[in-house]
Amino acid sequence: MTGRPPRRAGTGKPAAPKPRGVKPPERPAAKGTRTPLGPDARDPRKRSPRKKPAPGAARADAPLEPTVVKTPKDAREAMRLQRFLARAGVTSRRQAETLITNGQVTVNGTVATLGSSVDPLRDEVLVDGKRVKMADTVTWLVLNKPAGVVTTRTDPEGRDTVFDLVPNVAGLTYVGRLDYMTEGVLVMTSDGRAAHLLTHPSREVSRTYEAVVQGAAMEALDELQSGVELDEGLVLVDAAHVDKLGRSRWLLTLTLHEGRNREVRRLCEAVGLTVDKLTRVKFGPVGLGDLAPGKWRPLSQTELRGLAIRGGVRE
């Protein structure tokens, strides 16, 4: 080795040294070959993680439909005629009584009377000469009831009702009424027997409410946890806590296992709290989530199983 720089082939001049730290330019990729992935490029071999859908959520490109399940056998047992007509979606129970009184209903060829019972699987019921049968399936959904909407099918004052916000399903009814200014979870079904069971006090289905209140909330919390005497007797809450919202305003969260008329509002009044806003955020396993006011969604299979466990609906 003489220490001389290397010579280029075909010239008499030495080759120029390569600068350090400089990356040589990349050759363009040949047609049909893969180029290296940059730091922001997505590897086509790797799939993006899928987001888990919310309970009861439908695909973005699919029309929203209520959950439909097969009618349980015990929901088709013998019942009062007006109840049968309401469950079959003919009319409300009260209006069914009018149809029966007017002689517009026959059972097995005989004009029916008030107090008659029918077997939905065996008896032939006609209203104005048309056969009436119960559906073979049951519909379930949950509505986020807005304030200022009545929980009834028809309102004599002409106000909006919860049935204006949901699909027109024969025999659809609500599970646990919410008063005019209370909003939140309202489960609805065409299975009247299940609706009755889920709201019966013996089933102890939990209901959770959030109330924006004013007053001495900490003192009121102690009273609520000890039990409050109302007109119908002592009311014990399952759980209660408060969070500070601002000046003299609090968020009171209550969980009860019964649904007496205006119970939460009366409890708050009894302990000296003024209710600014009241929302039912959960009924049994059915939560409000991000469901917007006035919107509905189908119940998930998990929620249906939870209602069956808590409400004893299924065998």
What does this structure look like?
The protein has 315 residues and is of the alpha+beta class. Among the domains are: 72-132, Roll (Structural Genomics Hypothetical 15.5 Kd Protein In mrcA-pckA Intergenic Region, Chain A); 206-283, Pseudouridine synthase (2-Layer Sandwich), CATH 3.30.2350.10. It is 17% helix and 26% strand. The protein is built from 6 helices and 18 strands. The protein has helices at residues 81-87, 93-101, 192-199, 217-226, 263-270, 301-311; strands at residues 67-70, 79-80, 105-107, 110-111, 117-118, 125-127, 130-132, 137-145, 173-175, 183-189, 207-214, 228-230, 233-235, 239-246, 249-256, 274-283, 286-287, 296-298. The strands form 4 sheets. Strands 1, 8, 9, 10, 11, 14, 15, 16, 17 and 18 form a 10-stranded mixed sheet that branches. A hairpin with a 2-residue loop joins strand 16 (274-283) and strand 17. The chain is elongated and about 70 Å long. 26% of the residues are buried. The model is unreliable at 30-40, 56-61 and 309-315 (pLDDT under 50).
CATH architecture of the domain at 206-283: 2-Layer Sandwich
CATH homology group of the domain at 206-283 = Pseudouridine synthase
Percent helix, as a range, is 10-25%
The unreliable regions are 30-40, 56-61, 309-315
Query: What is the H/E string?
Result: EEHHEEEEEEEEHEHEEEEHEEEH
* Topology, number of strands: 18
- The coarse silhouette is elongated
Biggest β-sheet description: 10 strands, mixed
Q: Examine the coordinates and then state which fold CATH places here, giving the name of the CATH topology of the domain at 206-283.
A: Pseudouridine synthase
Structural class: alpha+beta
N-end to C-end Cα span: 97 Å
CATH class membership of the domain at 206-283: Alpha Beta
Q: Please count the helical segments.
A: 6
Query: Could you report the average pLDDT, rounded to the nearest whole number?
Result: 81
Strand content: 25-35%
Please give the radius of gyration in angstroms. Answer: 33 Å
